[in-house]
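Translational regulator CsrA
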Amino acid sequence: MLALTRRAGEEVVIGDPKNPLGVIRVVDIHGDKVRLAFDFPRDTQVNRRELAEQKARGNDPRQRSNNDHD
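Structure:
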């Protein structure tokens, strides 16, 4: 795992710097919260860890039909 220190407005380039896969920018830091912006091609999935785990288990809430109830 790579851990980086960035300030608001700074970016991390993912992939080849001449033709990056995407860019992550630190938009804002407020207390213990960091706001990030992701600039990737539309066909690249970007998910929060908890949502990615739900999808991996087959529990994607966006794929529920109207007949499913909790």
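Residues 49-56 form the longest helix (8 residues).
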